[in-house]
Design a protein that fits this description.
Helices cover about 0% and strands about 35% of the residues. By secondary structure, the protein is mainly beta.
Length: about 475
């Protein structure tokens, strides 16, 4: 499929239209939006368009499904076993069984366009991924709507939830067993029109990447809504002009992100944790890794670099001790014990510095002990092949890259022990409280301290220029 090729949107092009914000959803926090008691719209003809960046894969909740949006009992869209599934109504489920959505480094654009007035049943529900219509369908016990002019489970008077699926006798709340983890952006629902994906996005003529378009020409219909998540004081605000606003549940302004389809930021990669037992333990927009047992889970990030100067921040979490912050190469680590692996360099919170090649090559107490209130800045300089660490904006350590890492693709890296970990901030989203909101010299990222001169946030706009 197209989104597995260069058409996948990683935000690394000038689009002409910028999406400024997304909204982070986290299963562990039961975060979702709800619109209660809507007026009925057109149940036969409508279109949904949204961008999604996944941060957790596989089974992370009791249902095994991550709900994107639901209305009542039988209007549903969700990821199940990493496939996308759309429910038109009870008995009519449409799912592509060939496409798994497992690229957590990319933003996906999904369009579901419905018009049951069409004479051909397969034209009554059309599903597009990054501008390309999916044609391989497993109906999962259902089928396309088999009766022309039939009404769906959408745009009725049932409550609507985003970020989960509704439950209860009257479906008045979100179901914690169906919550999703990830980011949503430019979430659009159109009442009364079956639009094409080209009304919401287009292929860049130079790169072939699918990119978003300005939606000012969309005719929304009376029950349509458009969630841009751009107003931090009202994240459920409808920008269609209809006033079809949503209410937040367990979501605050801190969940607004600048990680978007037009500037995609680095996050932790749930496929690169060294052990499948850590599924679901990468959380909070893929910026933390939590584990409570005595093993030592580790994770590498979604973006690797071979040149340039890059900056990110972290704060220690939990008991101070064996938590490690640093960099690693792209080599696969086959053991869950990160300390036995080659090709990584890290500091820990007790003041130690460690580097690894074929065996432990260096240790040392090069700086004072870190606390959970300290902000650690990591400055990776691949021009001079060195890494610097800052404590609350003061330089505490400069080390050259070990020989095994020189000339390799380098990824941000963390390793935890029991409840000891780090809260990371690559600039697009963090659970850390940011008081100063500094950016890099290009105006990207949200950091506690300004990156050193010439260092940039790990995001695709910067990678396009310096990576």
């Amino acid at each position: 499929m197209a989104f597995l090729t260069k058409a996948a949107n990683r935000g690394s092009i000038a689009t002409g239209y910028e999406i400024d914000n997304s909204l982070k959803f986290e299963t562990a926090n039961n975060e979702w939006l709800i619109r209660n008691s809507p007026t009925a719209g057109n149940r036969k003809t409508h279109t949904f368009s949204f961008w999604v960046k996944r941060t957790a894969l596989g089974t992370i909740n009791a249902s095994g499904s991550q709900g994107i949006i639901g209305q009542g009992q039988h209007g549903r869209m969700f990821f199940g076993s990493d496939y996308f599934q759309y429910r038109f109504d009870d008995g009519h489920d449409v799912r592509d069984i060939t496409t798994k959505f497992r690229d957590t480094a990319a933003w996906y654009h999904i369009v579901v366009a419905v018009d049951t007035n069409q004479s051909t049943s397969s034209n009554r529900v059309k599903i597009y991924y990054n501008g390309v219509q999916t044609t391989t369908i497993d109906h999962d016990g259902g089928s396309y709507p088999d009766i022309q002019d039939s009404a769906s489970g959408w745009f009725n008077t049932n409550n609507i939830t985003i970020g989960t699926l509704p439950f209860g006798a009257s479906y008045t709340a979100g179901d914690g067993d169906y919550d999703m983890s990830g980011y949503l952006a430019d979430f659009a629902a159109v009442d009364g029109t079956q639009y094409a994906p080209t009304d919401f996005g287009e292929f860049d003529e130079d790169t072939g990447i699918w990119k978003p378009k300005d939606l000012s020409d969309i005719t929304w219909g009376s029950e349509g809504y458009y969630l841009k998540f751009d107003d931090f004081s009202n994240l459920g605000a409808d920008s269609s002009g209809n006033g079809n606003n949503f209410t937040l549940s367990n979501i605050t302004s801190a969940d607004q992100a600048t990680d978007t389809p037009t500037n995609n930021f680095c996050t932790l990669n749930p496929l690169w944790t060294g052990n499948t037992a850590y599924v679901g333990l990468i959380q909070e927009g893929a910026t933390i890794l939590r584990y409570s047992s005595g093993t030592k889970p580790f994770a590498k990030a979604t973006m690797g670099v071979t040149n340039g100067k890059w900056y990110w921040e972290a704060m220690p979490h939990g008991t101070i001790g064996s938590q490690y912050l640093g960099i690693a190469t792209g080599y696969n680590f086959t053991s869950s014990t990160a300390l036995s692996q080659n090709y990584n360099m890290a500091i820990n919170t007790t003041g130690g510095y460690y580097s690894y090649s074929d065996s432990l090559s260096e240790t040392g107490g090069a700086f004072t002990t870190l606390t959970t209130s300290d902000v650690i800045g990591v400055a990776l300089n691949l021009e001079d092949e060195e890494i610097k660490y800052y404590k609350n904006d003061s330089l505490i350590l400069t080390r050259p890259l070990i020989a095994n890492m020189q000339g390799e693709t380098i990824f941000p890296y963390i390793m935890n022990y029991e409840n000891r970990s780090f809260n990371l901030n690559f600039g697009g989203y963090t659970i850390n409280t940011i008081s100063s909101a500094e950016t890099d010299e290009n105006g990207y990222g949200t950091f506690e301290y300004a990156p050193p001169s010439g260092y940039y946030a790990l995001c695709t706009k910067n990678l396009a220029e310096y990576g």
